[in-house]
Design brief:
heterodimer; A: 485 residues; 2 domains; 7-stranded antiparallel beta sheet; 20 strands; B: 2 domains; 4-stranded antiparallel beta sheet; 3-stranded antiparallel beta sheet
């Protein structure tokens, strides 16, 4: 069912979603099927969940072990180990009960159904006609066994995402293909996506870029200074401070490095697919029509290579889950100018960011923003509105008129005597905020008025909107449609 | 002012009910009960020199007077304007704000009233778009006006609904 786009890719396997990083261990057993065609996930699932609890067990061993040794001698270690094993067994036990009661199947209406729950039964019906994305991911421990989890996302904010843990990688790919094929039967534009890699981030570039991001570089420089002063004065207090100023950014860099390791952007019919992660591989689909706004971030030390980071606001993502929103909003952690240009062209076709007609903030805005005033500017074309800010780390935020929600004009007590004002264009929740600050007040008022009109025209012309139109309802109106009875 | 002229020119702005001034001042008084309790405590604690307590009292009185006056101006600054394709809400004295919400982008119109507002016969109309940053509140509306506004907004929103 895969149709490779170019002849060179003809040798591609049917599905290349999710790379196999396993140790080559394949386990016996497959997903069980009952008489009515309902399927269970792989019986190894409880074991993986149990193994996942090992880190908690280790903490227990370390936490209680030390105390136990003092009290019971060597026997205390055994006691702590038993405690850790019991925790793993309990987790595995609960997981087993959950696994026994979790069934998935395609019902007669062509929807995907998942029944689960031990005490509270839950029945979910995922309407495949509203399918947004099916992703295959391999969390660390699952990967050891070549297992994968499947994430199915349908249109609608809130809890519109359903995870299926765990399937063998082959089964996960097959199920993904089946879901996409069934969805294609309802909606003609979805087929199993042949992916073409269009951009990758080499680990070296990622490491360098993370170390040179403005905050990190500043804190590391500060650490070096503190260390130098500490050694010169032979004081010990500086070391403690250096531990924080140096340790925290290194920790953050390491975390981001692990997270965005091997970042790959591929093109597929259902949008751009992002794959990344060292310990936990994740894959996300960014349908171009769902990108609400894009931000180009350019830290000071990246500028000699022209590197940028691209962040996006995506409808329905990030609104509810505050913890998980960041991972979905980075389009590419670091990109050279050509790659960045190409990616921007994908998500905002026909927009030339490098040649936007900027209207700068007046020189008197220096009194309000002494550092970034020289870079503050606003621009608009017949398709997009853009705002520029930041001096050390430059930001350019771009929003198509067709995606702008409301327009705000604000004037604070410092801006008023200077005759300045700011214009904000509201986008869906996400990291990108479109604020053109400290403009000339008369220009700002005019821009606000015109932006409201341009947004109206942009909406009237927009062709991509039908695709996303179904998800405009708020989650509270949606719940009835997603959970079958 | 030239800036205001750009917005006010041809549009008919509706102010909110002046009763809101009283409602907000009642809230201020209730908050000040706590401040009064604090000041009284200062006078009763023997270790605190009396001039310090008097200074705090004077400060509290000045702030009270300023807030009392500010509430009056702030409430008068609230106004809304229904135009052909969008709704304008303006507010603020220190931090001036004007929000333009296109009808097609409205997702929800909430009508809310707290206990004091209810007692005074006032309600707040709040507009929601897909953006969480859209800050379009119109407080201090008489219930009939609020219901009428809500219905008009909901109808126009439906007519011009534009998805995301």
């Amino acid at each position: 069912m895969s149709t490779p786009v170019d002849p060179g890719a003809a040798n591609q396997p049917v599905s290349n979603v999710g790379d196999d990083f396993g140790l080559g261990i394949t386990l016996p057993g497959t997903a069980t099927v009952d008489e009515s065609g309902r399927r269970r996930t792989h019986p190894i699932t409880p074991l993986i969940h149990g193994v996942t609890a090992i880190p908690i067990g280790v903490i227990v061993v370390i936490g209680f072990g030390a105390g136990a040794v003092e009290q019971f001698g060597i026997g205390g270690i055994a006691l702590a180990l038993i405690g850790a094993i019991v925790i793993c067994l309990i987790v595995a036990g609960f997981s087993y009960l959950g696994w026994r009661n979790r069934w998935y199947w395609f019902d007669d209406d062509g929807d995907f159904r998942i029944d689960s729950g031990v005490i509270t039964k839950q029945e979910r019906r995922l309407q495949l006609s509203r399918l947004q994305a099916v992703d295959v991911a391999q969390p660390l421990f699952a990967r050891l066994f070549s297992m994968a989890e499947l994430t199915i996302e349908v249109a609608g904010s809130g809890d519109s995402r359903q995870k299926l843990q765990f399937l063998t990688l082959t089964e996960a790919r097959a199920l993904r293909a089946e879901i996409l094929a069934r969805a294609a039967g309802l909606r003609q534009d979805t087929v199993e996506a042949p992916e073409v890699v269009i951009a990758t981030v080499p680990p070296k570039d990622l490491a360098v870029s993370l170390l040179l991001s403005s905050t990190t570089a500043l804190l590391l420089l500060l650490t070096a200074l503190i260390l130098a002063v500490t050694f010169l004065t032979e004081g010990a207090v500086g070391l403690v401070i250096a531990l924080f100023t140096g340790g925290i950014p290194l920790f953050v860099v390491l975390a981001e490095f692990l997270k965005y390791f091997n970042f790959t952007v591929s093109d597929s019919p259902d949008g751009l697919r992002l794959k990344f992660g060292l310990a936990k591989t994740e894959s996300r689909t960014v349908p171009p029509g769902r990108v609400q706004a894009i931000e180009i971030v350019e830290p000071f030390l990246w500028r000699r290579w022209g590197w940028v980071r691209l962040r996006v606001n995506i409808a329905g993502v990030g609104a509810e889950d505050s913890s998980g929103n960041k991972e979905e909003t980075v389009l590419i952690p670091v990109a050279d100018p050509d790659v960045a240009h190409m990616l921007i062209a994908r998500v905002l076709p026909g927009v030339e960011v490098s040649s936007l007609p900027w209207h700068s903030a007046p020189p008197r805005s220096r009194l309000r923003s002494p550092i970034q005033w020289a870079n503050l500017a606003v621009a608009w074309t017949d398709r997009v509105f853009a705002a520029r800010s930041g001096r050390i780390t430059r930001h350019i935020a771009v929003i198509p008129h067709a995606r702008s929600q409301s327009v705000r004009y604000t004037q604070g007590p410092w801006e008023r005597p200077l005759g300045l004002a700011s214009v904000h264009v509201d986008s869906t929740p996400g990291p990108v905020k479109i604020s053109a600050r400290h403009l000339d007040a008369v220009l700002a008022a005019q821009v606000t008025q015109e932006q409201a009109q341009r947004a109206g025209v942009g909406r009237a012309d927009d062709r991509t909107i039908r695709w996303a139109a179904e998800q405009k309802d708020r989650p509270r109106d949606e719940s009835t449609e997603e959970t079958g009875s | 002012m030239a800036v205001e002229a750009a917005f006010t020119s041809s549009d008919a702005w509706t102010p909110v009910s002046p009763k809101l001034v009283l409602a907000r001042r009642i809230v201020l008084l209730l908050c000040y009960l706590l401040v009064i309790a604090g000041v009284v405590a200062l006078f009763l604690i023997p270790d605190v020199p009396s001039w310090a307590a008097w200074a705090v009292l004077a400060g509290a009185v000045v702030v009270f007077g300023w807030l009392w006056w500010l509430i009056g101006r702030r409430v008068r600054s609230f106004a809304y304007c229904e135009r052909g394709d969008d709704l304008l809400v303006s507010s603020g004295i220190m931090f001036r704000r004007l929000v333009i919400v296109p009808y097609g982008r409205m997702q929800l119109v909430d009508v809310k009233a707290g206990p004091i507002d209810r007692w005074m016969g006032l309600t707040t109309v709040q507009l929601h778009t897909a953006a969480a940053t859209t800050d379009a509140n119109i407080p201090g509306l008489v219930p009939d006006v609020a219901a009428g506004l809500r219905d008009r907004l909901a109808r126009r929103g439906e007519e011009r609904s534009a998805g995301l």
